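Internal tracking record. Fields below are filled automatically when a chain is submitted to the structure queue. Please do not edit lines marked as system-generated. If the sequence contains nonstandard residues, flag them in the REMARKS field before resubmitting.
Queue: standard
Priority: normal
Entity type: single polypeptide chain
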Amino acid sequence: MPRRFHLFAMAVSREIEGRLLRLPAAVVSLMLLLLASTAGADSVWLDAAGRPNASARDALQVLADAPADGLVAQDYQARELALQAADLARAPGSAAASALDFDRALDTALQRFLHDLHSGRVDPRSLGFRVEAQRKTADVAALLHAAADEGRLPQAVAALRPGLGQYGRLREALQRYRTLAADPSLRLLPPIAPAKSLKAGDLYAGAGALHRLLVALGDLPAEAPPPVDRYDAALADGVRRFQERHGLEADGALGSATLAALNVPLSQRVLQLELALERLRWLPELDDQPLIGINIAMFRLWAWDPAAPADSLVDMNVVVGRALNTRTPVLSERMRYIIFRPYWNVPPSIVRNEILPAIARDPAYLQRHDMEIVRGAGDNVQPVEASTPQNLALLRQGVLRLRQRPGPANALGRVKFIFPNDENVYLHDTPATQLFGRARRDFSHGCVRVEKPVALARWVLREQPEWTPERIDAALAGPSSQRVDLTRPLPVILFYMTAMVTPSDRALRFAPDIYGHDARLVRALASRYDGRR
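SYSTEM-GENERATED OUTPUT FOLLOWS
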């Protein structure tokens, strides 16, 4: 019997069930038995007797294990379906309608689960993230039914997870931190005196509790001897490693900011890991391509090629947009060219809000900052007189534009990396190199300043042999702007995760939610399934 007709027949059985009660009991029993005997016919999830089959048992286990991927088992009715399956296994012959309900509900729950696992529970566009260019389009229903028919559902589930190694490492970290969060011995640390910072050798009543926590987190070797009410050198080393992993000033001192980070509930770290897994599901399939990734929340950039040796990975600090009003956007695009010795075309908002007020205070401002007013687009246009009120008025209106000439004072430094996007953001060098030494680095107007522009330029142009290191150095120091198109555009992902296993050292790191994106995602997830519970 074709599956579609079989399901229709089972649905009809519910409509006539009341009428069956008027028939003799023997006839009713016979009819129910006949319906039950077809309950499993051509069903993915039921055997010939109408009982859950081996694929159904695999499916129930998949749903029960949803928390391993940071998902919620009850969002997919895992408990209710397990109870229904148990009822059907005990008495399949008298529950044709229940078998239909179970078959349909299990199929729906699994499709929802696999969609969420593969593409995420929340559309990133609803949160303002621009990662929709290469959305995933897997036919979840077809994959599900084929895998169930062939008895390979667990393998199909694994194949639908994001293929990035980062995803698997975060899954492992999630399991570990769930165990830590359930450990009652890892309790809050006692406070320290206000405005005081403990150094190695200072007395501290919470030294023992701190030792247990640092060992559990992996920041202190398990064989390190427990201290006796003193913040000793071993604890200071462990705190330094903890600070490095949590975006703090890594000085080994136990101050208020470090103590607050140590006292963040481990259940909150579990949540950060769950949110990171959700965001990885939003990313396009990358197919082991070379990639530049910037984690905005951690102020860090990585450039790597999966086909190249591990030591070819490039990583560096970055400066991102201010959390208050000029945030760097989350997006996925492709880098297509770079420009050596770039002009800085000052955005109109900066012209209006910063430059024009500065000119009003200091008429020589443009000259001192090597800026000029120009008419028209492109780098070859001629400047106009900057001191006339008429031209300043036209600049304010947006008829004219402002740019900064190439040179040592140029805000973009010696090179910028372009991946065309609606937000008009890019990566670039900067003369303000002192900011890279700070723990928190949200200072820009939205674009991303890179700490090692020469290393990044060499990596980006590594497949264009005519661009030798010597030629790149000459272009960086040259007298004029020069555009270089890439022979193969490079994926660039500006993402936002407050939990991540960094590719350079495989350390699990956490970061504060500087833009509030975690909080917004939590609210979106809370409302996602409210109507289904």
